[in-house]
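can u do me a favor
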């Protein structure tokens, strides 16, 4: 192990083996499927490109027929792929997921229109950030304060039985807490039903699980997802909103956050994130070609089973979230040994030597706030294949064997 004692921070990508692909398990921006990157390359540089006039897709006008075609395709494909009913509008905005942290209270809680509140189920870092942002403009509260994460399903049920919920305009949750590794899903902790919502609307941040599983749209009023996980590159966002919630009453919202304005202009009030949408068009085509959402959901489950099977039986690695009802199939935080920096650093070195990156990100969030020591984290978005997941398991096993041999266990 002594030869593995380099510091884990400060690698540059140029240090990796050139003859093997780097596998990027980053929580986002994340690995884009290779066929998608190939298509982008061909479209932009090949002579047979659909843009044969020396113009690349990111130089065209957002009012041109070419871009309108890309946007129409993207809208149709996302609707079909995610089985989004006709009574929802699909809005493409800039400002990533953070833009919607502000847009949600501004669009739904105008004090001139209603006096109800936004109820945030703060189950991790991202719902916490959304809650803090909304607190700046609106009457919101965190019904999940002092949560013991292992008890989430229980407390969640209690909260929804609290009569205070009758004063809620909306209930907000993050369906997959990217940092904490907690997920709402139909075979575990489910979204609240209409009955449990008691007339409140359900708003869901799907940034890190969107395009990975089927959604029951009956229970949802607003969903949004930033684009840097399963929809390509960072910077943009998709918001899917029940049309009946759109109205022209809220006039005092910054235009860039005004859902109604974006709905009325087909996401073209300002110049849309053309390159993002161009890439999303190609990604959706690829998702549909490989079998659609049912197939992707199956693949996603398989990948997480491969990882959890290994972590659960390992004596060296352990998952941070043990409760099988709530632990995420997508972002899996885990501890190496006792979690101290030396062993973590040795493991990261070993991954690095095997062209594996993205397990440690300098997240701005403090793990102590969530009673966690800083774990490593593997993220299994759609750009990660089953084979790459298996390769990672091999790395986990090899490293564990090396440690055992060294300690003569
Ligand atoms: N919500 C979740 C669940 C996220 O994981 C992220 C980004 N990692 C965001 C929101 C914020 O997205 P953005 O950085 O695009 O604003």
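np, heres the sequence
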């Amino acid at each position: 192990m002594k030869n593995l004692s380099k510091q884990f921070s400060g690698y540059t990508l140029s240090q990796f083996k050139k003859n093997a692909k780097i596998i990027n398990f980053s929580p986002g921006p994340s690995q884009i499927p290779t066929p998608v990157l190939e298509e982008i390359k061909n479209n932009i540089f090949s002579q047979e490109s659909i843009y044969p006039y020396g113009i690349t897709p990111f130089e065209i006008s957002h009012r041109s027929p070419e871009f309108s075609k890309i946007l129409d395709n993207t809208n149709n494909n996302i609707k079909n792929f995610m089985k989004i009913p006709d009574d929802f509008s699909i809005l493409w905005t800039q400002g990533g997921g953070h833009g919607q942290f502000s847009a949600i209270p501004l669009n739904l809680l105008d004090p001139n229109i209603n006096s109800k509140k936004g109820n945030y189920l703060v189950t991790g870092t991202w719902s916490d950030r959304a809650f803090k942002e909304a607190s700046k403009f609106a009457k919101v509260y965190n019904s999940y304060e002092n949560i013991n994460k292992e008890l989430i399903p229980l407390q969640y049920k209690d909260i929804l039985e609290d009569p205070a919920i009758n004063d809620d305009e909306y209930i907000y949750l993050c369906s997959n807490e990217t940092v904490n590794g907690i997920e709402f899903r139909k075979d575990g902790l489910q979204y609240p039903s209409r009955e449990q919502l008691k007339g409140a609307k359900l708003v869901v941040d799907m940034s890190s699980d969107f395009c990975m599983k089927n959604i029951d749209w009956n229970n949802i009023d607003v969903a949004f997802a930033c684009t840097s996980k399963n929809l390509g590159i960072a910077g943009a966002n998709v918001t899917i909103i029940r049309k009946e919630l759109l109205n022209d009453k809220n006039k005092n919202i910054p235009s860039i956050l005004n859902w109604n304005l974006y709905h009325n202009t087909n996401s073209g009030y300002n110049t849309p994130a053309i390159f993002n949408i161009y890439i999303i068009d190609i990604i959706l085509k690829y998702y549909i070609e490989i079998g659609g959402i049912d197939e992707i959901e199956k693949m996603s489950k398989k990948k997480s089973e491969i990882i959890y099977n290994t972590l659960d039986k390992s004596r060296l690695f352990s998952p941070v979230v043990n409760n099988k009802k709530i632990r995420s199939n997508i972002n899996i935080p885990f501890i190496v040994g006792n979690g101290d920096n030396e062993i973590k650093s040795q493991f990261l070195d070993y991954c690095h030597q095997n062209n594996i990156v993205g397990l440690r990100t300098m997240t701005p969030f403090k793990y102590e706030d969530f009673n966690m020591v800083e774990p490593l984290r593997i993220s299994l978005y759609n750009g990660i294949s089953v084979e790459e997941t298996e390769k990672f398991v091999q790395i986990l096993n090899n490293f564990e064997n090396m440690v055992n041999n060294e300690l003569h266990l």
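Residues 292-313 form the longest helix (22 residues). hope that helps!!
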